[in-house]
Structures are given as C-alpha cells and as structure tokens.
Design goal:
The structure is a single chain. The protein is α+β, with helices and mostly antiparallel strands. It folds into two domains: 187 residues, 3-Layer(bab) Sandwich (Hsp33 domain); 45 residues, HSP33 redox switch-like (CBS domain Like, Alpha-Beta Complex). Helices cover 29% and strands 38% of the residues. Strands 7-6-3-4-5-10-1-2-9-8 form a ten-stranded mixed sheet, with helices on both faces. α1 packs across α2. The longest helix is centred in the N-terminal third of the chain and has 17 residues. The model has no long low-confidence stretch (mean pLDDT 93). It binds zinc ion.
Length: 243
C-alpha cells in the first residue's frame, strides 16, 4: 500500500509541479472501509488532494482534509502526516451518486495536536480538483492548475513573473503522465494504538467504565480509520478506575 509524491521545477524553473500517485493506497482504503463505487472514487480523489496539499506541510505535522457533502451525501476525513503516512475514513460506504459536489471542504493543519490553520471552502463543483484549485487560489486569476482522478493528483503553478508564455494546461497534461524530480514516500498507516484507546476510555469516568465491566465484561473499540479492534478485558478496565 505505497505511493509517492514527486516535485520538480519545469520551464527554466518558472513552473512548480507536483504529482502524487496514491492508487494502491486508495484501493486498500476502499477495501478497508468496504466502499462502493461512488464513495471509493471520492475517497481516492480526496486522498490525492490531501497528498498534494501535504507538500505545503513545512513544519506542520498533520494535514487534515474534511469533506462534508450534501450531494452526494457523504462525510470524509483524510489525514496526511509529515512522514508520508496517510489514513482516512468515509461514511456511508454507498451514497447515491450526484451530478455535482455540494457541501463544504475543510483543510486543517496541526502541530503537536494543536490546530494551527483552518481553511474553509464552499463546494459547488464538478470535481474535487476544481475545489482544491479554489481553496488554493480563490477563483480569480488562477496561476495554477489542479487535477485529481483515479488516485493520481497533479498540481502545476506558475511562479510570480516567470514562464508567462507557457500554457499551464499543456504542462498539466505533460505532468499527468509522469514527473521526474524529488521523491517522497506516501503510505497507508494509522496512528491509533492500544495506549490511545485506554487514554480515551479513561476520560469517560468511573461510572461508565464500571458499567462496561458489570454489563459487558469488557470493551471492544474499533478505530474509525483503520478498522482495527482493540479488545479490553475486565482487568484493563479496572486499571482505569480512579476509585
Ligand atoms: Zn486506526
């Protein structure tokens, strides 16, 4: 379940280009979440979009892309870490298809668990590449092009005052087929752990934990992102009680 992000400068360093290939990651993620065709396509587009945006991470540890769509009715969260680790969740698995995307896009950047940036873009577009282009540059005088499709994402940007005679659409087509340049790994990996589950449960309070012990004889917690189940027995839960 690996992918890659390539970045490079083209046309006498006047055009910055980026290409991500997350096809294997998207296929795996669709399988993990049991997605039908519509949700799988949107999830692949969102993962490619998040992987492109993560190139702007700099000192950011995590980039989160959230889509809350009315059309098709779907909620999606994709996280990309500075290591290249990617995870996502999408519900429901089989929404009804829609001719256009309608809803809201959130882009969040976090450092050490603290949100340091939040961008909100209204979604009323044919596809996610157009949404991303609006998010990055607004809708006027766009010096950049974005396309995400089938697990591939491409971003090309004219640097200020450079390569003014170069057709960005032509560069996009060129880069779509491949880009030589710096390579960074992208891979499917969740950040959940047994310790995090225990920390989360410890915030519930004794009454609720005691109820899990008495009524359920333990607890099973499934991660929304990777579907891994953490099974806790009575001794695990008893250790969380504060009195
Ligand atoms: Zn997980």
């Amino acid at each position: 379940m690996n992918g890659a992000r390539h970045t490079g400068l083209l046309h006498d360093d006047g055009i910055r280009a980026m290409r991500v290939d997350i096809r294997a990651i998207a296929a795996h993620a669709a399988q993990v979440h049991g997605l039908g065709e519509v949700a799988a396509r949107l999830q692949a587009d969102a993962l490619a979009a998040a992987a492109l945006l993560s190139a702007y991470l700099d000192d950011t540890e995590r980039l989160t892309l959230q889509l809350q769509l009315e059309q098709p009715r779907l909620a999606l969260t994709a996280d990309v870490y500075d290591s290249g680790a990617i995870r996502c969740r999408t519900t429901p698995p089989t929404p009804r298809d829609a001719p256009m995307l309608e809803g809201i896009l959130f882009v969040l950047k976090s450092v050490r668990g603290r949100e340091v940036y939040r961008g909100i873009t209204a979604v009323h577009h044919d596809d996610l590449g157009q949404v991303l282009q609006d998010h990055l540059h607004g809708s006027d005088q766009v010096p950049a092009r974005v396309r995400v499709r089938d697990g591939i994402g491409v971003f090309v940007e004219r640097l200020p005052g450079q390569a003014e005679d170069v057709d960005l659409d032509a560069v996009l087509e060129e880069v779509w087929n491949g880009l030589e340049g710096g390579e960074a790994p992208l891979f499917w990996q969740c950040t959940c752990s047994r310790e995090k589950v225990l920390t989360m449960l410890s915030t519930l309070g004794d009454e609720e934990i005691q109820a899990m012990i008495d009524e359920d004889g333990g607890a099973t917690v499934e991660c929304n992102f990777c579907r891994t189940e953490t099974v806790l027995g009575v001794p695990d839960l008893q250790a969380l009680l504060t009195s």
